[in-house]
Design a protein that fits this description.
There is one protein chain. By secondary structure, the chain is α+β, with helices and mostly antiparallel strands. It contains 3 helices and 6 strands; from the N terminus they run αααββββββ. It has a 3-stranded antiparallel sheet with strand order 1-4-5. Strands 2-6-3 form a 3-stranded mixed sheet, with no helix packed on it.
Length: 219
């Protein structure tokens, strides 16, 4: 509300009060109170205007204080959010570093288990007195296979993934060609076999797969 509106409202209130007093005095026959002169009305309006201005100034100062406090609070919140992001990044990096170490150790265990299984897969030399391998060999093979499956699941739980290479086109970013072979049934550059499996961790290559690729000879 503007000052002029306040002045008009106050003047209307004062005039209404004068009329009410006048009517009350005429109805009761009592003596009419002394009329308020224009100078008194103007004085009251000036005092009211000063009071309104003081209240407006106080309101502006209060609003400015609230705005400053809000800006300070928003700055503190931004600092807390930034620190939380930094903490989350540090924790994620520490967790990934721990996972990476675990995956590397488990990959080494998986390689050893795979080599042991490959050794046991070699045909057992047959003799006329022994037509099949001893039962203990099958039990060992089964135990190694179960252990290898568990190690593989542990690698996956830590974010490691074994690369699929056989039958795919050679990818130099994920594979390393250690030998070539000639298979006329396959396209040139297709992986024929895998010598050493490759792994990724969180979509990053942990170890390239060592593969044998197809190199078709010229007709």
């Amino acid at each position: 509300m503007t000052d002029s509106a306040v002045d008009e409202a106050t003047l209307a209130q004062l005039l209404t009060r004068e009329l009410t007093l006048a009517e009350a005095g005429g109805a009761t026959g009592s003596e009419r109170p002394e009329p308020v002169d224009l100078r008194t009305i103007v004085g009251e309006l000036i005092a009211l205007k000063s009071e309104v201005r003081a209240e407006t100034r106080s309101t502006r100062e209060t609003r400015k204080s609230l705005d400053d406090a809000l800006a300070l609070l928003q700055g503190r919140i931004a600092e807390v959010d930034l620190e939380r992001e930094r903490t989350d990044v540090a924790l994620r990096e520490a967790r990934e570093a721990g996972e990476l170490s675990g995956v590397e150790a488990l990959v080494d265990v998986a390689d050893r288990l795979g080599a042991a299984l490959a050794t046991l897969a070699v045909p057992y030399p047959r003799r006329w007195w022994r037509r099949r391998p001893p039962p203990v060999v099958g039990a060992i093979r089964q135990g190694l296979g179960i252990t290898l499956d568990r190690v593989t699941r542990s690698i996956e739980d830590l974010g490691g993934v074994r690369l699929h290479t056989v039958g795919d086109v050679f990818d130099p970013h994920k594979m390393r060609a250690v030998d070539t072979a000639d298979d006329p049934c396959l396209d040139d550059g297709v992986v024929i076999s895998e010598v050493l499996p490759g792994y990724t961790h969180r979509r990053r290559v942990l170890r390239s797969a060592h593969v044998v690729i197809n190199r078709r000879s010229a007709p």
